[in-house]
Amino acid sequence: MRTLLLATAITLALALAPPLSRAQDSKLPDIGSSAGELLTPARQAEYGGMMLRELRNYGYLVDDPLVDDWLQSMGTRLGSNSAQPQQKFTFFMLKDRQINAFATLGGYIGMNAGLVLTAEREDEVAAVLSHEISHVTQQHVLRSVEKAQRDQIPILLGMLAAVIAAQQAGGNSSGDATMAAISSGMGLMQQLQINFTRSNESEADRLGIRTLARSGYDVDAMAGFFERMSAAMRGNEGGYSTPDFLRTHPVNITRISEAKARAEQIKKDTVLLTTTTPGGVRQERVNPADPVPDPARASGNPLLPGSLQLSLPSIGLPRGASGQFDWARERLRVLSAPTPSELVREYQDLRRSQKDGLSDPQRYGVAIAQLRDGTGALQQALQELQQLQSEHPDNLWVNLALGEAESRNGRHADANRRFDALLQKLPQSRPVALTYAQVLNEQGGMEAGKRAQAMLRPLLARAGDDPVFQRTFARACELAGDNARASEAYAEAAYLNGRPEQALLQFQALLKQPGLDYVSRARVDARIEAIMPTVLEMRRLGMRDPDMQRR
Q1: Cβ contact 277:320 at 8 Å
Q2: What share of the chain is helix, strand, coil (3-state, %, to 5)?
Q3: Dihedrals φ, ψ of 319, to 5°?
Q4: Most C-beta atoms within 10 A of its C-beta, which of 110, 220, 299, 300?
Q5: φ, ψ at 95 (rounded to 5°)
Q6: How far is CA 186 from the centre of its chain?
Q7: Is 306 helix (H, G, I), strand (E, B) or coil?
Q8: Quick one: 303 exposed, middle or buried, by C-beta within 10 A (0-12, 13-18, 19+)?
Q9: For the chain, which residues make up each domain, given as ranges?
Q10: What are the angstrom distances between the C-alpha of 38 and each of 11, 147, 487, 534?
Q11: What's the average model confidence in pLDDT over 522-529?
């Protein structure tokens, strides 16, 4: 029955993918649009979060602190320069090697690992993200739902009914019947999307390239990526499947030409600034007529007279490419590989195809693969990472991997000293804290658990929707002997991983522990109250967690 939830999530994503066909005038949403009244922002965020949890439950997500931090930082930079800078965005990476990206309700934007592996630089990834961000800010998602809901709702209900009937029938054929019902429903949804308009795509391109320029990225990246996608489409005319990105984001000569024209116009309106940094020469375009707004000065405090308005220094986000793209791409290559053997062949092909052999980021990828394999290649990984660290002493990706390699090779003191130095340098870094805590948990023992627990506590306030943090914190508390706090964190991790029924039972069991203090009891009561409606609705529909059914 868990298949039903995935069907719902996937169907929702398909229903909310960018519309595709009949040409309309490219314009901003008219003032009289009722799309914003279709769902409240809170309800949109709820649906988006539900989809994310279901994708995570089925193992589709790349939940990696370093990749997540890179993607979220890039997305936040773009979102802050979008048409709706106050909009909250959540960016996530999927393991799928297909080239695709999509936006859904609540500002949730997903990207496949395959798109990053296909891109040649961070600016191209940023171009796709800025396009998806524009779909959200212009309410294309809601407008699509509003326009198609009369057709989509009956299809969705029919598909759910078919899934439930198939599951209740039981027997060996129930799984096949379930998948048939899902496939037919998804097929109809996809066909409906093809019948929508292309105007949203044009609008997202137009606003997306503006966001790209405001964020300091290369404005030519959008047209460049479209051209390579168009070449991929032509290469697939011989019977190969078309990349998913081209199905939801059709690329033609007109669209590429428009992207190039917009880029040239932006270049005319901007100046190219060159800055010398320790890492090299950095270039970015700045529009003198469109400065980055200072929220502190723009909004002010309406409760104070003008003469008493506070003037705070502007704290701007970094602009342009982060310089981490090559390292992120190789880490994603490892994390998204179907099997270790296929990954080995992939790196062998890269080594043969490149005149100078593997690049430094690719060598890093091989070392990460060896660390994850754990079949006797730990010493090789350590040696490779030591060499890379001597060549890139300040690279966070290399230093974190080296600390892991040192710990797994039994050099715990060296690893802990390395992590302590990184933590002192980057005290609020999620990747550093989580990687260090995971290493301490692997080392085991009460002392290591207490150390990890104390290190993670300052991050608790912003970790409510972070399953990796909750799982790591739970294990640290368990090692430290704080069983009540461990149980609470394990329950939160279960909920965030798409298992609300398990989470509810764990929270209810936690309430029965006699040593639970008043604050903890109130916190657990609040979580039970929040999760209960979801579980009751699932049960009403006949949906049960398969692990719970086996008990």
Answers
A1: no
A2: 65, 5, 30
A3: -115, 150
A4: 110
A5: -70, -15
A6: 23
A7: helix
A8: exposed
A9: 2-27+38-268, 456-546
A10: 18, 11, 38, 21
A11: 93
**Which amino acid, one-letter code, is at 431?**
P
122-137 and 65-80 helices, crossing angle to 10°:
60
Length of the chain: 551
Q: d(Cα 364, Cα 155) in Å, to the nearest integer?
A: 47
| Helix H or strand E encompassing 282 | strand 280-286
Q: Is the pLDDT of residue 434 over 90?
A: yes
Give the whole-angstrom CA distance, residue 488 versus residue 479.
14
The CA distance from 491 to 500, in Å, is 9
Tens of pLDDT along 345-401?
999 999 999 988 999 999 999 999 999 876 678 999 999 999 999 999 999 999 999
Give how far Cα 428 sits from Cα of 27, 69, 242, Å.
42, 12, 42
Nearest alpha carbon to residue 346 among 360, 328, 366: 366
Pinpoint the alpha helices (H) of 392-464: 396-408, 412-425, 430-443, 446-456
| DSSP assignment of 236-280 | TTTSPPPPHHHHHS---HHHHHHHHHHHHHHHHHSEEEEEEETTE
Q: What is the DSSP letter of 82?
A: S
Arithmetic mean of pLDDT, 522-538: 89
- Within 8 A by CB and 6+ apart from 251, the residues are 226, 229, 230, 233
Alpha-carbon dihedral of residues 315, 321, 325, 327, nearest 10 degrees?
Answer: -60
Cα 105 to Cα 13, 16, 88, 265, 421, distances in angstroms: 9, 8, 11, 32, 40
Report the amino acid identity of residue 35. A
Mean pLDDT of 307-331: 71
What is the Cα–Cα distance from 348 to 358, expressed in whole angstroms?
A: 9
CA atoms within 13 A on the CB side of 393: 2
Q: Which CATH number fits domain 456-546: 2.60.40, 3.30.1300, 3.30.160, 1.25.40?
A: 1.25.40
Q: CA nearest 5: which of 145, 178, 184?
A: 178
| pTM, rounded to two decimals | 0.78
